[in-house]
Amino acid sequence: MPLLGIPSLLSPELLKCLAEMGHGDTLVLADAHFPSHSIAQKAGCSVIRYDGVEMPQLLEAIMSVLPIDTYIESPIALMQVEPSDADKFSPNPPIWSDYAKVHPHFSLLTSSSGKSRVQLLPREQFYRAAERAYCVVHTGELAQYANIIITKGVAI
């Protein structure tokens, strides 16, 4: 049964995960190509499947209930475009613009403090960071470089 104020896209399993996460815990939102199960196995965490769901739609629902960490410089991480793929994207993967429309934290532009809230991590460094996640949410997103790591903040 739906809850008031909670997007119906958020499953009971995902809501439980988000509620259990503490300040500083991370959530991986993975595209369809991401090695979600092997990363989750290394992290000792679960995978929640959202097959067929595109990332911007799920991200919007999650961001409506998840506080973002305000005590760290970059509470959001994206996988940096590989040099071999740089010519495909001008200047960034189109999916990143979709993220910025969902929530201002995803803007790659600098904030009023002069720093971006988004950290771009090289592929292997992104995988290592994902291995420390509380949970991995595997979506049906097919766009390249759609993976996100979000650090939870304090709900005040």
From TrEMBL:
Keyword Isomerase tagged: yes
Pfam families, sorted: RbsD_FucU
Coiled coil: none
InterPro entries named among the record's database cross-references: RbsD-like_sf, RbsD/FucU_mutarotase, RbsD_FucU
Keyword terms, alphabetized: Isomerase
Biological processes, Gene Ontology terms: fucose metabolic process
Protein name, entry field: L-fucose mutarotase
Gene source species: Macrostomum lignano
